[in-house]
Amino acid sequence: MKGFDFDFLKVSPTDVVDIVLVALLIYYVYTLIRNTLAVNLLVGMFIITVFYWIVKGLQMELLTTIIEKFMSVGIIALIVIFHPEIRRFLLLIGKNAFLQKNKAWWGYLFGRKEIERNNLTRIKPIIDACKTMKKTRTGALIVFVKFYDEQFFANSCEVVDAKISKRLLESIFQKNSPLHDGAVVISENKIKSASCILPLTDNDQLPSQFGLRHRAGIGVSETTDAVAVIISEETGEISYAKQGRVRMNVSFGELEKLLNKDF
């Protein structure tokens, strides 16, 4: 009786390194496209691929030919569609962000609770500023981005590049401040810029009470990986925009949890 050949189960040290590197690459690509529109694009591409194999199996020649022509430019289409993500990935490598900026692996393995406590310390000045602005009904738009794109923000913002502080945020959004119109952009634990003019959302299903501040916060969350905290000048209500969706009437406890997760 002929035995089974188990040679394919043999794993060399090189294979282990190969698997680990691929796993790390997939993880970092996932962190780049997570909470972005790129996820929806990948799902769409997967559906098109499945549909292609179905119509090919059913011998639908016309549809097969059309989809094949579409897929023949797949590499170029990927570069165009995922240009922002590819740019951020190269920026991540250039800044040595694998170890310095993205510490998720180390957080899971060594002291995640300590990292969360440090993050809450960084968030506290923002929460305190929001409490004051809600009480005084001071309109505000604070945008948090993982990767600060200087080309995206430089043309419409005043560069600040300052440490996050309650008083600074309050002074920026004071009605008499020359910077109070527009958004404050926070990244890398700094207030990077203020008075930013952001793209407005095209969503026509939003509540009628949403003004330019809300539409700008939602708009930037649709086109980038940013999240936005919006304080209404009329009601003092706090809203939270992410991936084009907005959560209204957010409490300070909820805001703290959301920022701790996303910021």
Automatic annotation (TrEMBL):
Presence of the UniProt keyword Transferase in the record: yes
Entry EC no(s): 2.7.7.85
Ranges of residues in domain DAC: 83-252
Catalytic activity line of the entry: 2 ATP = 3',3'-c-di-AMP + 2 diphosphate
GO biological processes: cAMP biosynthetic process
Keyword Protease: no
Record HAMAP family: DacA
Protein task: Catalyzes the condensation of 2 ATP molecules into cyclic di-AMP (c-di-AMP), a second messenger used to regulate differing processes in different bacteria.
Protein family according to the UniProt entry: Belongs to the adenylate cyclase family. DacA/CdaA subfamily.
NCBIfam families the record matches: diadenylate cyclase CdaA (TIGR00159)
Subunit-level organization: Probably a homodimer.
Annotated protein name in UniProt: Diadenylate cyclase
High-level lineage: Bacteria, Pseudomonadati, Bacteroidota, Sphingobacteriia, Sphingobacteriales
Gene, per the UniProt record: dacA
